[in-house]
Amino acid sequence: MGYQAVQVKTSVGLITAVNVYIPPGTTQPPFSDLFQWKIFIIVGDMNAKNRLWGSDKNDARGSALKDAITTHNYVS
């Protein structure tokens, strides 16, 4: 998994924007690594399919990402 992160200082504190790319067919990445910042936005192409974000099906990578999202309480 490759990612770049940029922190922006705002009136509410630092906000981290993270751009992620995970090529198809690569080993399952540790998605929990993405949840290390206090306030952040994740964007990118993770090649992960899950109905939670509008895909028509779930795959193993999408399920792992969904599990990391719910484990870290980032679903409202």
Beta-strand residue fraction:
25-35%
Number of strands: 3
The end-to-end span amounts to 26 Å
What is the share of helical residues? 10-25%
The dominant shape is globular
Give the averaged pLDDT, no decimals. 91
Number of H- or I-type helical stretches: 1
Strand order within the widest beta sheet: 1-2-3
- The low-pLDDT segments are none
Instruction: Compute the CA-based radius of gyration.
Output: 13 Å
Reading the helices and strands in chain order gives EEEH
Question: Which helices and strands appear, and what pairs or packs with what?
Answer:
Layout: E1 2-10, E2 13-21, E3 40-45, H1 60-71
Parallel strand pairs: 2-3
Antiparallel strand pairs: 1-2
